[in-house]
Write a structure and sequence with these properties.
147 residues; alpha/beta; glyoxalase-related enzyme like fold; 2,3-Dihydroxybiphenyl 1,2-Dioxygenase, domain 1; 4-stranded mixed beta sheet; 8 strands; elongated
Amino acid sequence: MAELTPYICVADSRAAIEWYREHLGAAVTVEPIVMDDGHIGHCELAVDGARWMMSDAFESAGVAPPDPGRGNAVTLHLTVTDVDALCRRVQDAGATIDRAPEDNPPIGRLAVFHDPFGHRWFLNQPLPEPVPEAGPESVPESVPEPD
């Protein structure tokens, strides 16, 4: 099976690692590789199995963090169990809420925010499956009397 993993760039990987750990509940799955100049060349994080790679900027390789003067070319989509709680947590931690939590059937409960490092996140909480109403086909016509 193929897998697509985002590789994001931030201006300060050390600060981003701490922010993502504290406010998104991320775990570092590959410890930061520190380059000779002190910059983070690579690290990997995950939230409930959803993972991404990250580095500091590398001008020589054409890798740069998001430019706040233009829109985002990519949005990171994260499925969570409680959009409202996570949205409050990231907002309290300095994220900009672009779209407050709202139900959007059939997709789920959604929210969109920009983290302090310029990345746009789309939070999705799947809505519970509707419970089918009991119809005539679910009720037996007659229940036999015990002998």
